[in-house]
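Notebook entry, structure prediction.
Reason for the run: the old model in the group folder had no record of what sequence produced it. Starting over properly, with the input documented here first.
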Amino acid sequence: MNYTYPIDETWSKKEIIDVVNFYSLVEQAYEKSVKRDELMLAYTRFKQIVPSKSEEKQLCGKFEKESGYSCYRTVKKAREMENGDKVSMS
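New structure, fully documented this time:
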């Protein structure tokens, strides 16, 4: 991994950890697979921290530009799956 996770300096330490966890799960979905429920729970927490759609697009856009991994496509695929499934973007 030769990139950084986009974060907001005004977030608390707990919020930063939760957002980084979400990015990490998106990464795992591309590199292996991740439990759908775990990803959706992390996304729900991400949306509590980043409720604005435009800020979400901005942060996820930076993440995708840096890593090549799309938060949007990963969450979209997870939403289409059943509880208990694993999300794999490979």
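Summary: The chain has a mean pLDDT of 96.
The old model has been moved to the deprecated folder.
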